[in-house]
Specification:
By secondary structure, the chain is α+β, with helices and mostly antiparallel strands. It contains 11 helices and 14 strands. Helix content is 26%, strand content 15%. The N terminus and C terminus are likely disordered.
């Protein structure tokens, strides 16, 4: 009898291990994905296509995704699995749990192709749901498109952000309290948005507006009572954190936020020194309150978009291992709540304890380097094809030297075809610009063609007075067509636009990444060890809220012509 019980227990353990492996498999080889479509891809709406990826062989909807990355030679895509009638269906992809929504991330401006997978992996290892990924090679309409990261999209679901499903009738009592999926990021007219009543921080920002969006439920399904509830809750959280009694254990911030998740999000973001940290692709979710009134707090995470992290950007102090991300930078406003939380000794004490625990395993130098090395070995057979497709990703020693002398991102270097932006007063068509405007969020590299790349929230009609007749019509979000040919030299310039450095080989990139991470961890070790002693955060007092200069979906968007 005892032997039978032991065997049963062993079988249960094996079965459980098998389920875990199925949900988060260790990838052994790079997978192949092929997509075919007769439609022209765009960033506004999905078009019908056909995809083969492992066991999946069927219809999909696909569209371009991104903001400034729409100008890259290698595009990102949003994918929806569909049935023959065009309705979305759930299915597993390459060993990952079933869902209908997926993303093909292009590591174009991350030569290592590891930053997003590493960030998601660390978040999962810290005990949270983070997007699972598979490394693939993509062929689109018979053309090789290089290495991609197939990723789970951030969506509500049992195997994703596991919050309660909201129904139209959930408009009162406990039912209206959750779940909600929120984001601080760019936005468009399809998003339900809310301007924070607390101004964001950052030296020299052209705007201090922090914009929240409700991602789930979607705007068209949100009921007025639900919208009022969630924005009132966000207001309460932010204003309580700024209040004099914010650290009170009964009435302060811990009553409204899931503190351990905020502690982990802080550690994760500060390790990455993400150029967009806290202020872009920053997700939160709110669970439904329990019947006894407990729970239902605002949770920080999941994490997303780390291709400009771990030393891979030349703006917002992103390549500086001795800076703090929570202090903000001169590109987009950082929510003030993070610096305020660090003024509470109890919060800092939790950060220190958690960080020291993580450094023994998940965030040890050995564990991180082991993951990077495994990833590099996985990619090795594909690298030659990828860099042959995108030769501009690697540069000569002379080009590296030239890149190191370029002005930082946003410093207005001169462009071919247009005068230097520090002296320009008028764009064609009457758009005027003052000499005193501080750094733009997009540094414009030298290029021929006279039209700079532009970022999210940029709205342009099909025709633009004053621009050359040959300039292609574009839609909302500045969406280049997927087959739009880049201007001569444009692709290489775009790669360098964000880059803190350039490399001549993949091996050099991996070495730089490891060295940067070691230096960053050393900085955090020295400083977080003082969090319960003499360490005090640098505080920038929030000023009055400044609206975006031009309006639109992106705080630094160009105006509509």
């Amino acid at each position: 009898m005892k032997k039978r019980i032991i065997i049963t227990l062993l079988l249960a353990v094996v079965a459980l291990a098998g389920q875990c492996q199925k949900k988060n498999p260790v990838q052994k080889t790079v997978e192949q994905i092929s997509i075919t479509t007769d439609a022209k891809l765009n960033a506004r709406q999905k078009v019908g296509a056909y995809m083969k990826a492992g066991d999946y062989d069927g219809p999909i909807g696909i569209k371009l995704r991104g903001n400034s990355s729409l100008s890259f030679n290698q595009k990102k895509y949003t994918i929806e699995l569909r049935d023959r009638m065009g309705k979305d269906v759930e299915a597993p992809l390459l060993g990952m749990p079933s869902h209908s929504d997926w993303v093909l991330l292009a590591p174009y401006n991350d030569v290592s192709a590891v930053r997003d997978p590493l960030a998601f992996y660390l978040w999962r290892e810290m005990g949270h749901w983070g997007p699972r990924t598979r490394i693939v090679e993509l062929t689109l309409n018979g053309e090789y498109r290089g290495i991609y990261i197939l990723s789970e999209a951030i969506k509500r679901g049992e195997q994703r952000v596991n919050i309660d499903k909201m129904r139209k009738k959930d408009i009162g009592g406990i039912d209206v309290t959750g779940g909600y999926l929120l984001r601080i990021d760019t936005y468009n007219e399809d998003d339900a948005t809310h301007v924070s009543k607390v101004p964001g921080i950052g030296e020299g920002n052209m705007s201090s507006q922090v914009i929240w969006s409700c991602i789930y439920p979607k705007k068209k399904k949100l009921q007025p009572e639900q919208l009022a509830y969630i924005w009132n809750y966000v207001d309460t959280v932010e204003q309580v954190i700024q209040s004099d009694s914010f650290a009170d254990p009964n009435t302060g911030y811990s009553r409204y936020i899931d503190v351990p998740s905020f502690v982990d999000y802080f550690i994760h973001t500060e390790l990455s020194m993400n150029a967009d940290g806290y202020k872009r692709s920053a997700y939160f979710y709110k669970e439904k309150q329990n019947a006894d009134g407990s729970g239902g707090k605002l949770v920080a995470g999941p994490v997303w978009d780390y291709n400009l992290a771990y030393g891979n950007a030349n703006f917002a102090n992103a390549d500086n291992t001795e800076a703090w991300c929570f202090e903000g930078a001169s590109n987009n406003p950082t929510p003030a709540l993070w610096q305020r939380l660090l003024q509470d000794p109890a919060f800092r004490k939790q950060v220190k304890s958690r960080y020291e625990s993580l450094r023994k395993n998940v965030l040890s130098n050995k564990a991180i380097n082991t993951y990077i090395d495994r990833h590099a070995r996985l990619l090795a057979p594909c690298l030659a094809r990828h860099f042959e497709k995108y030769p501009e990703l690697l540069v000569s020693e002379e080009e590296k030297l030239q890149a190191s002398k370029q002005p930082p991102f946003g410093a207005f270097p001169p462009m071919g075809g247009l005068p230097a932006l520090d002296s320009i007063h008028h764009f064609p068509g009457g758009f005027s610009m003052s000499d005193s405007i501080p750094q733009f969020p997009f540094g414009f590299p030298p290029m021929g063609g006279g039209v700079p790349p532009m970022g999210g929230g940029f709205h342009m009609p099909d025709s633009i007075p004053g621009f050359p007749d040959g300039f292609p019509p574009m839609g909302e979000g500045f969406s280049f067509g997927d087959d739009f040919p880049m201007m001569p030299g444009f692709g290489n310039a775009v790669v360098g636009m964000f880059a803190a450095y350039r490399v001549s080989s993949y091996q050099e990139e991996i070495q730089i990444l490891k060295k940067w991470l070691a230096s960053r961890l050393s900085f955090l070790d020295r400083n977080i060890s003082r969090f319960d002693k003499d360490w005090e955060p640098h505080i920038q007092e929030p000023k009055e809220i400044k609206a975006p200069l031009f309006g639109g979906g992106f705080p630094f968007a160009f105006p509509a012509f």
